[in-house]
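# step 3/5: fold
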Amino acid sequence: MKIRLSATVAASALMLGLAACATTTPPQAADADQRAETAASQPPAGVVVPPLGFDKRVLANGLEVYTARDADTSNVTVQVWYKVGSKDDPAGRSGFAHLFEHLMFKATRNLPPETFDRLTEDVGGSNNAFTADDTTAYFETVPANHLERMLFAEAERMGSLVVDEPTFVSERDVVKEEYRQRILANPYGRLFGLFVPETIYQESPYRRPGIGSIEELEASSLEDVLRFHRTYYRPDNAYLIVAGNFDQAQLDRWIDQYFAPLKNPTTAIPANNVAEPEPTSPREVTYYAPNVPLPAVVIAWPTVKYADADRAALTVLDGVLSTGESSRLYRSLVYDKQIAAQIGSTPDFAQQAGNLSALAIMAQGHTAEEGIAALNAEIARLREQPISEAELTEAKNELVASALRSRETVDDRATALGFALINTGDASAADREIAQIQAVTAADVQRVAARYLTPQRQSTIRYLPADAANPPSVQKMNVDAPVTVAALAPAGEPTTLLPPEQRAALPQPGAEVAPSTPAVAESRLSNGMRVLVAPTQGLPLVSARLGFDAGSSDDPAGKAGVASLTAALLTQGTATRTAPQIATEIEQLGASVGAGAGVDFTNVYANAPADVFPQAMTLMADLVRNPAFAAEELERQQAQTLDALRVALSQPGAIASQVAGRVVFGDAPYGAPGSGTVETVPTVTPEDVRAFHAARYRPEDATLVFSGDITPEAARALAEQAFGDWRPSAGAPSASASPAGQVLPPRIVVIDQPGAGQAAVVAAVRGVSRTDADYFPLTLGNTLLGGGFSSRLNQEIRIKRGLSYGAGSSLGVRADAGLFTAQAQTRNDAVPEVAELILQEIGKLGATEPTEADLAPRRATLIGGFGRSLETVDGLGTLVANLALYDLPTSDLQAYVGRVRAVTPQQVEQAFARHLPVNQASLVIVGDGKVFIDALRARHPNLEVVTVSDLDLNSGALK
């Protein structure tokens, strides 16, 4: 399923070095494709998406309050959606709403800085925020007994935010690092973050990038911040949404207590409703940027605002165009012509205007002009002839199933409501859109294509690598805007943090509501396959996960990528289904079916609405048992993998993660990149993947996990029907004695990437297996070190110094020795400082016993995350499957909370000292070496330098 947020998301898989989107398979006889289309036109019985079910009331100060009780969860979500977004950035202050979002997590009159993390992460919850064109939304999910505290805190920052000069400067520096990471270090960051919006829109404030620019961030002042808050952060400009486990009468009293006293300023909110003019002629523009591994093209058209009646038809059109491997763009550009590495389209509907864009990141050796011609041809088809009933049914089923999945949790449902309110002001709009989509006809799709997607209204964008003749294109600056700094309300008297003795006391938590851990039913088929079932009460969704002992560490010598390609090819054809048939069947069901290989294991998964889940299981079984592994499909997957690798190896973070494995494990199986390398991927043959499948995909070693709306009896019957008569076709291979290899000495490695917009810094240490006795002390210690916003690494690197958008760590457990990493991305000149900070924090955990006060909130973080995982069918299934993959008893699911609570501070220190000593840490740094190598060498004289063009990931030596 496609995430419908932004064009950036559409390219994210490729940017991260993953295979092209969706799933593919081989074309065989044309009549087979016709049969698939006929079958797809028969809709399933149908899925009912329950209404959101929120109650509304309005306070005297204008605050609109929406609440929905759900007694089946132990959590509650509190969300405040302000009707202010990046479109409201004052002239000369692009990125201001986003910068302000960061500042809202600081102090208030009664709450010291970083209190929001103490109130959420430290009790097992989470918090975050986002800025979009029309809104800035803040949301927390916490155990239900902490609801009153969150209401108190949200009212505090609405009414009495405190921002001082040092805090303002520090957070502005953090946003600059976010800009460098998302825009400059990402090869397609400039395209999607800057150039697409400024090309699509001519007059609307939507044409300015939400993240702003370094120059305009620098131009902002503390007084601007105070005036912005006073102008927009007010009760009559916000929606308060609360969903979860609460007592309604008590909730109403708390809302009246904390929010009703807040006052609105007397100044009016600045007018901002610019009508985007109708295009008078087509536009073409070419942008250039450094470090662009593959050319990209985008074609776009202005469409309609969110509340327009044509939005539903345009949404269905988008589904036909690019959702999944049976979509028109995928079939044409990626599968048939093989000219694109990735395709996508984005229907972006906002308050005042909208657009639809289609993109293609070209395959190696193919040009932007080929992409433009192919995209235009598919758009012309939509204008000139109606889509088939099969395509229409498929798109609708996908959209309805996606809506169902997006309402699994209380925070999901609150978010769906928030978007509807911001864009329409009508709480029922989110529920009506399902019916509106189901009412769309093929004629509606053709009508909106002919109305909006015309050559005269089209913008065509080419995005190409910069060179001597074509220097990098610069961001458009000094763009006019309807709101000015002068139009903002006066700052008034700044609010200050009260002395501790004068602050209002935080409300005390209520009685704890314990998460419910389902019992797991277990059985075995006659062929040895283990079947686990974790049933839940909730939405009509079912998930299945089938795990095999078949990971990238089992790749044949010199053939890195075999496990990954084998998994990818499962959806690319069976003995009776072609790749297009498989893609059509998956999408017609509204299902998600696929496979992926990790270091130690391969997982095949299926998620579908309950009424069609049996059909999804039948398909899943065919993919696992009867893959065709056709030569032409392997060639397609190899080409897509190579293009993805080229993109990944243009980014500092992705390069660093690949190098870290080689530095720690050398030439051992764990050291090889799981996706393969540009040298090994082309050498893989159909015989290689067939042999790997025959040897490693074995029922007696497999575990099938069901979760969701299914009984153990029904699950067992489906498993028996799908896999009961399966017998392996070859003898079992011998297990690798030591995939992690011998312990290697630490290294300091710099991968010099001239011109890199940012540097990646990674400290890596050989870690532990998942079954190690110290797993829980190390997990808790890692959470203290780098697990979350309030972790030690993030505190030191982001919060205190503003050197990174985020720093964290991962325990990285595996079946054999794991790969522990701690990492951050930073500006190139800050590399030596960030590297030392990371090493210092790792060292502290092995040399100093943390206090009980340190560990208590981190225990809550782990327990809260565990509880939230239980709320979705995929989250629950993943927890159960991960236990099974490591041969751990399913009773560990119920024991998890107790194990976390039992860890002592002494155990954490001893575990880090024993397993993760800082003197065994390697450093891997990828960035523009000329900026930092001399300073780094002064601290680490033994550092190795490898130019990125000389990097050899096939060897532990790296060159």
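# step 4/5: annotate
The longest helix spans residues 165-184.
# step 5/5: archive (pending)
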